[in-house]
Specification:
The strands form two sheets. A six-stranded parallel sheet has the order 7-6-5-8-9-10, sandwiched between helices. Strands 1-2-3-4 form a four-stranded parallel sheet. It has about 325 residues and is of the alpha/beta class. Helix 5 links the parallel strand 3 and strand 4. The longest helix is centred in the N-terminal third of the chain and has 24 residues. The two termini are about 35 Å apart. It folds into two domains: about 120 residues, Rossmann fold, CATH 3.40.50; about 160 residues, Glycogen Phosphorylase B (Rossmann fold, 3-Layer(aba) Sandwich). The chain is built from twelve helices and ten strands.
Length: about 325
Amino acid sequence: MQHWQSPDVAQAINRRLTPGRYDLVHICDLVLMPYVLPHKHHTPFVVDRSRVDLQFQIMEHKTLRFSTRDRLLRWESYAKLWLYEKKLARESLLEVVCGPDDEVFLHQHVDPKAPVMVVANGVDLDYFHPASAPDSRAAEPTVIFCGAMDYSPNVDALRWFFESIHEKLLERLPGVRILIVGKNPIAEVQAYGTRPGVTVTGGVPDVRPYYRRAWLQMVPLRIGGGTRLKIVESLAIGTPVVSTTIGAQGLELKHGENILLADDPESFASEIFRALSDPALLRRIEENGIATATDRFGWPAIGARLANHYDTLISKSQPTEASH
């Protein structure tokens, strides 16, 4: 929390947040709460959470490899973070989360009365649109994994894939290509690029050509919570997805209809192979994915729903004439 605090930012916000100037303040994530908390009595605030921090860190704790010393230090941090989560739930007018799993966690482990609204992540449908050229896909079966490559859930996902899944897939489909696309690949991720058929691009100016080149996207995530942008982008652009259940949490997608789901190494390898070797299945998942993204994940519809809810919150929080 202290890492993200800046006296200059605090002063700038204090100058602007005068009583009566704003109906509502929308902030992004837990770390910005200290800036607006002193003004809560005259200007309510809502928090748009890309992930529930406590939930995310506990899932990291269960999945990643930490030393005994680091685990003890993290337990101390969890206690502090839990108290801060409870304060946020008590003081904010609303927490906007990305999926039902985030809502369930907040109500079970932080505050059963916390005001929460689930708003799934969206995608720019004009930007991430299906390819107009039918021959944009690579000649060889190609699987993409897209995301920030210094982000611990993505690093863990790749570690699990290459330790437990990749060889099983190669046994069935020796010519498969793996395309790892995303900024700031750490040394561990870069090393995967030395394997036959694996390419690590690092950051790219535009991910769309890579999505369109791939036959499908894999999402072998074992740490959930928060955003699933890679999935909604992939659906919108027409690149079918094979994911773990955790990776697709909150998007309400259906296995075999608009996504393929698998949670153990054998099943994950099998679902990738099944999709890559069955053109009809791949096409069905692609078409249903595009339709799902168009119907449910476009920003205009999501934004309108959130704006309408904010209007309701503002009308409820403003004092009536009788209370003046």
